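**User:** My hope is that you can spare some time for a protein that puzzles me. I have put the entry right below:
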Amino acid sequence: NAKDLEIRGLFVQGAKNRAIAVSAGGMAVITDTVVADAVGFGIALAGVGARVRLDRVRVTASHDTGMLVDIATEVTATDLVVDHGRPEGSVSGNGRGILVTDGARLDLSRARLTANRTAGIDIAVGPSRFVGHRVLVEGTLPRPSDGTSGVGILAYGAVDVTLAAARIDGNREAGLLATKLNANVNLRFVRIAGTRSDAATGSGGEGVVIDSGSVASQDGVWVSDNQQAGIVVTDVGSRLDARRLLVSGTIPAQDDGLGGVGIDVLAGAVASLDDVRLSTNRETGLFVGGAKTRLDARALVIDGTRAAWADASAMGAGIAVQSGAVAHVAHAR
């Protein structure tokens, strides 16, 4: 019961289901606490109308999910560490870092999510909301059961994500994936770097993927050293609005040695770019393709694009517009 609950200075290890659970409305405060090796959820906050505050908490080696925020619960967390989900040798669970779902809200500040599995932070089932400031999501590994996924931040469905002064680094499949209709993502002063392809299929590795009608706005974002594409915006209804954006150092895909594109705008998606630089990518700096696909760009710089590994004879293109797409570009070089 969350009514006037306070937990301070607690160490919980090896819980079989939920190490710490809040399951009713009210106010709960959890500080200076460590949860280790929970077989299910490390911390489960699922009280309708509950308000929970966490400060200086670490959740490590949870087999399913480090922290669950569920069922319209509102959580504020500061100085939080969630790491090493689903340790080697465990037989169940996804090893997810944080799951925010079913209309819950998480405000996260000064947090580190390291070496979890499946997803570092998963925001699903609207109207769930995540707001992060000074957050590091790094080294997310694939799902143990099939070797897929490993996304840094996943926004799934009609959810809202706001991230500022953050870094998403060294994850798998995608650094940030916004998917399914009405996912809305706002990034400000975020770096997304070093994403690598799916270990099972050899595909993926994109820094940012916006698909299936999702929308993203970016200001002051640096996307670097990812694989196959720095940013992908695809499908009718998907949209990217970006200003003061740098996409650099993208490398080709692991499975076929092709790609390495700075930004892909595909299959009816729309992108608006202002004060954007695409530098030292592979194959194509900016690719716009497909009927109803539209690009509007101004103050655009594309430089240093090189050929893909698998076709070293081909020169790297600055911009390619194909298959009925429309691009309007002003003040570019």
The chain has no helices and 27 strands. The first strand starts at residue 5 and ends at 8. The mean pLDDT is 93.
